[in-house]
From TrEMBL:
Alphabetized InterPro entries for the sequence: Kinase-like_dom_sf (IPR011009), Prot_kinase_dom (IPR000719), Protein_kinase_ATP_BS (IPR017441), Ser/Thr_kinase_AS (IPR008271)
Name of the molecule in the record: non-specific serine/threonine protein kinase
PANTHER family: MITOGEN-ACTIVATED PROTEIN KINASE KINASE KINASE 20-RELATED, SERINE_THREONINE-PROTEIN KINASE NEKL-3
First-level EC class: transferase
């Protein structure tokens, strides 16, 4: 992952900012709409961590600033409920100088978006592997009542050395029973990866995350979302109205991609079925049109 503000010498480390008397911020790993992520050291336990900082916008009213803090704390609560090898771990939540920070597991590796930008699209077997791991992560989150709502390549990390797939950034996650922070007339998320029912302001459930996974798989295979357009209005129209056209590169796993990109949530492929189909593809090189039964014997590629 590209970094800025590296602290590779002793003076930089000596001058690094320490928050909550414990976490030394050393390198900026990335910046997004939900905050800045730092590589840091937990000085108490002597381990590397990632620290997510929510910048303070001085133009915000007190109510708006409170809403930002609530969003950060909601991400922490959502993640803290989850324990899964393909979901980033929350270690701590702290405040320093009235600014909230989330202390996370440090994943040494690029995002899927960075990997695609650097190396180009992945092949169908790698896309299926990534898809299976993300489906496992989503099932665990959904079982805990947590919806991600912003699944996209930038929020999927690939650990160096192991290629472990890790779902991160639950910054706009919705926890069952929690009050939504989306105000009327505003939208949070990434439109190219957002399900049509969310675009239309209708119900949001686990199926919406599965639509996002379908779009993500298309991007992994072809290099861009099938819903990318020149304007936000064009993206909205593509997601809600236009014919869904998966890229030709999705051909080997097309039944899964089509099933995930079904506009009607009740007809969308569910996580269990999608995983069985992708596993069948990885075993045999052929994606079944319908999910195999769980007891089906494996058939190897010729």
């Amino acid at each position: 992952m590209g970094t800025e503000g590296a602290s590779g010498n002793g003076n930089a480390r000596h001058n690094a900012r320490v928050i909550a008397g414990r976490y030394r911020l050393e390198e900026r790993l990335g910046r997004g709409g939900m905050g800045v992520v730092w590589r840091a050291t937990d000085q108490l336990l002597g381990r590397g961590v990632a620290v997510k900082e929510l910048p303070v916008d001085e133009t915000l009213s007190a109510a708006e600033a409170r809403k930002q803090r609530e969003r950060t704390l909601r991400e922490a609560r959502a993640l803290a409920q989850l324990s899964h090898p393909h979901i980033t771990v929350v270690h701590d939540v702290v405040e320093d100088d009235e600014r909230p920070y989330i202390v996370l597991e440090l994943i040494d590796g690029p995002s899927l978006a960075e990997r695609i930008a650097r190396d180009g699209p992945v092949d169908a077997d790698e896309a299926a592997r990534i898809g299976i791991d993300l489906l496992c992560a989503l099932r665990a989150a959904h079982a805990a009542g947590v919806l991600h709502r912003d699944l996209k390549p930038a929020n999927v990390l690939l650990e160096n050395g192991t290629d472990r797939v890790v779902l991160t950034d639950f910054g706009i996650a919705r926890v069952a029973g929690a009050t939504t922070l989306t105000e009327h007339g505003s939208f949070v998320g990434s439109p190219e990866y957002t399900a049509p029912e969310r675009m239309a302001g209708a119900r949001t459930g686990p199926e919406s995350d599965l639509w996002s996974l379908g779009a993500l798989l298309c991007t992994a295979l072809s290099g861009e979302s099938p819903f990318r357009r020149d304007s936000l209005g064009g993206v909205l129209h593509a997601v809600v109205v236009d014919e869904v056209r998966p890229p030709v590169e999705a051909g080997p796993i097309l039944p899964v991609v089509r099933g995930l990109l079904e506009r009607e949530p009740d007809r969308r492929l569910d996580a269990d079925a999608a995983e069985r189909m992708l596993r069948a593809f990885r075993r045999t090189g052929v994606t079944p049109e319908v999910p195999p039964l769980e007891g089906d014997p494996p058939h190897r590629r010729p």
